[in-house]
Specification:
Layout (H helix, E strand, L loop, with lengths): L1 E10 L4 E3 H7 L4 H8 L3 E3 L6 H16 L8 E5 L10 H9 L5 E5 L5 H14 L5 E9 L9 H4 L4 E11 L4 E8 L7 E2 L27 E2 L1 H23 L8 E4 L4 H11 L10 H4 L6 H11 L8 E8 L3 E8 L7
Parallel strand pairs: 4-5, 4-6, 11-12
Antiparallel strand pairs: 1-7, 2-3, 6-7, 8-13, 9-10, 12-13
The chain binds oxa(dethia)-CoA (UT7).
């Protein structure tokens, strides 16, 4: 049994926030943000929750796949910004979509969440344990953004992307490669709540970040160095697994964190830049949503052709990274 992407969807909030708008909040300029990151604007949730954006992206993907929610066997949501510790966003989604047959769980692999989710869903479908799976990435990063910290607040945006994965006749999701390096865990941190223990009020020492807020704290330079190392590793590994060369790939879908990180990949492989998807100018860094939002835009703009090879590659907090090789097929439901 093979697994392929049979539908895509996405949702971004209406509220556009330009670099000039950010310059009202912190000491920054459009020139600095564009030259250092490539970001020109981002979308901010106007009270829209993570589950709400997930639902909008999911409905669009189901419609694109020509599939009803009652056909789903599995729902996976990737997020680092859930609305609740419990229930999961995926269970909320399962209930709202009336996907009665599906079992549902969330994953947290930060910005690599789409690749991790694709790997998991693919394996369920290939094993015959699910015929149709919904993978949704939804991130409301404004919930954990410190709008007094210019080092981080200009980088992030909100949004959701989704794919329906189904059993296919041809080779859809051909190969995936996942990797983690927890020795870099402290480089990108957003803290959960500490335990409240009335018997023992002294909390155990914090291993990552002594600060008590929930905001994103990032060592940008170190994450940058990790990214330019991890991206080529993930690209090379997945191509080797598939026995393919980079010049056979029609579209590279990189995680959208920084245009300079993407350019480093373009330069390293001598790629035609038009083959490399860039959406961060419009949406900033939307964590795990960035790849599926871009994939959906490419799909809906008619940019994907039968048989084309796609390479998605991501990296993020954890640290995590990974890649996926996808042979695009139109209407390939088995
Ligand atoms: O999704 C995965 C997670 N994140 C990433 O992938 C991010 C990876 N890292 C990066 O993209 C880059 O490191 C950043 C965009 C975060 C920062 O770019 P940089 O070229 O590494 O800048 P920097 O941190 O070295 O800062 C250079 C200067 C500093 O001033 P001084 O110390 O040289 O006087 C910063 O204080 O730029 C200053 N700066 C700013 N200035 C204007 C930092 N942020 C801003 C800002 N506006 N928004």
């Amino acid at each position: 049994m093979k697994a392929g992407i049979i539908g895509t969807g996405s949702y971004v909030p209406d509220k556009r926030v330009t670099n000039e708008d950010m310059a009202v909040l912190v000491e920054t300029t459009d020139d600095w943000i564009v030259s250092r990151t490539g970001i020109r604007q981002r979308r901010f949730s106007d009270g829209e929750s993570t589950w709400h954006m997930a639902e909008r992206a999911a409905l669009a993907a189901l419609e694109n796949a020509g599939c009803s929610a009652s056909e789903l066997d599995l729902i996976i949501v990737s997020t680092v910004t859930p609305d609740y510790f419990t229930p999961s966003i995926s269970c909320i989604l399962q209930g709202r979509l009336k996907a009665a047959r599906a079992f549902a769980f969330d994953i947290n692999a930060a910005c690599s969440g789409f690749i991790y989710g694709l790997d998991i869903a693919r394996r369920y479908v290939e094993a015959g344990a699910a015929k149709k799976a919904l993978l949704v990435c939804s991130e409301t990063l404004t919930k954990i953004t410190d709008f007094t910290d210019r080092n981080t607040c200009v980088l992030f945006g909100d949004g959701a992307g989704a794919v329906v994965i189904g059993a296919t006749e041809g080779p859809g999701i051909m190969e995936t490669y996942l990797a983690s390096d927890g020795t870099g865990a402290s480089l990108l941190v957003s803290k959960a709540l500490a335990a409240i223990n009335p018997v023992c009020p002294e909390p155990a020492p914090d291993i990552l970040d002594a600060r008590s807020d929930r905001f994103i704290h990032m060592d940008g330079k170190e994450v940058y160095k990790f990214a330019v190392r991890a991206m080529p590793e993930a690209i090379d590994k997945v191509l080797a697994k598939g026995g393919l060369r980079i010049d056979e790939v029609s579209h590279i879908l990189p995680h959208q964190a920084n245009a300079r990180i993407i350019e480093s990949v373009v330069e390293k492989y001598g790629l035609d830049p038009s083959k490399v998807l860039v959406t961060l100018d419009k949406y900033g860094n939307t964590s795990s949503s960035s790849i599926p939002i871009g994939l959906d835009e490419l799909n809906r703009s008619g940019g994907l052709r039968q048989g084309q090879l796609l390479l998605a590659v991501g990296f993020g907090a954890g640290l995590t990274y990974g890649s996926a090789l996808i042979r695009w097929q139109e209407a390939n439901h088995a």
